[in-house]
Amino acid sequence: MLSVLADIGPKILVLSAGGASGAGPTLARIVSRSLANADADVTHIALADYPMPLLASGPGGNASVLPDNARKIARHLAMHDGVLLISGEVNASLPAAVKNMIDWVSLVPGAPWNGPPVVLATLTGKTGGQTAVGDHLRTVLEAAGVRDIPGTFVFRTAELEAAGEGEGMVSIRIRAVTDMLLRAIPRQLPV
Known about the structure:
Blueprint: E1 11-16, H1 23-37, E2 41-46, H2 68-78, E3 82-87, H3 96-106, E4 118-124, H4 132-144, E5 152-156, H5 157-163, H6 171-182
Parallel strand pairs: 1-2, 1-3, 3-4, 4-5
């Protein structure tokens, strides 16, 4: 029986924008395991499990019909102390599905993005220093209402594939991501 709130670490949401296989889910599993080993309460969701129609803008747009999945993601944000958003990269920017999800969730009443801190992890197949996707993701999230983005980390798909289910070459960044998320202050959340 838990008698002290301090017995429970922060509630962390790991939101992976990838599908069921590949570098995104591998990174999500490694970070989730690292967080759980540090007594965090971890929830992992995949964007692929929350499909949403393309948000149309302008006259005749579909913004008045909010998808249930946007509401579900907003509820996840409200119930967690910190978020790790894992996103891939397309042409040095974020994938359309990630931008679409951010936009839909920003339309949910109550400013859901203005809640827990969001740590960013971007995946790239490039060998050079690809920070453009992280910068763009940060800009989009800030416009959507995120007030606290403590860090952005770039992971290369090849190094994650080489790590398998272990940490390998990415261990320093994994520890940095974990430490940053563990600093999330547990909020008094509704039960």
